[in-house]
């Protein structure tokens, strides 16, 4: 996995995995989707690059693996 992805790349991958935008507060975008029969919500900071730790947090919130993210970018 590359060190960093842009927020747009992460959002595009989550869209492909069935997530949709719910609301935005400042530079943070809230997305929701159904994963394994459960509603998952993730917050994406819409900065140019997403830090590694922040990306891990987004993936954990969305219940998405790193491999699923890479396959959909």
Terminal residue distance: 11 Å
The residue ranges in which pLDDT falls below 50 over 5 or more consecutive positions are none
Proportion of residues in β-strands: 35-45%
The CATH superfamily is Hypothetical protein
Walk across the major sheet and give the strand order.
Answer: 2-3-4
Q: Main beta sheet, described?
A: 3 strands, antiparallel
- Class from helix and strand fractions: alpha+beta
Within the CATH hierarchy, at the fold level, what is the topology?
Answer: Metal Transport, Frataxin, Chain A
- CATH architecture field: 2-Layer Sandwich
Computed Rg: 11 Å
In helices, the fraction of residues equals 25-40%
Would you report the number of β strands? 5
Number of helices: 3
For the record, the count of structural domains works out to 1
Task: Report on this structure.
With 73 residues, the chain is α+β, with helices and mostly antiparallel strands. The protein has one domain (5-72): Hypothetical protein (Metal Transport, Frataxin, Chain A, 2-Layer Sandwich), CATH 3.30.920. It contains 3 helices and 5 strands. A 3-stranded antiparallel sheet has the order 2-3-4. A hairpin with a 2-residue loop joins strand 2 and strand 3. The longest helix has 11 residues, at 52-62. The radius of gyration is 11 Å and the shape is globular. The termini are close together. The mean pLDDT is 90.
């Amino acid at each position: 996995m590359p060190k960093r992805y842009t927020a747009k790349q992460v959002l595009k991958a989550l869209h492909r995995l069935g997530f949709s935008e719910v609301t935005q507060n400042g530079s943070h975008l809230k997305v929701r989707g159904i994963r394994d029969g459960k509603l998952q919500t993730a917050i994406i900071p819409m900065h140019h690059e997403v830090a590694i730790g922040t990306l891990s947090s987004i993936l954990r919130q969305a219940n998405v693996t790193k491999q699923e993210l890479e396959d959909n970018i």
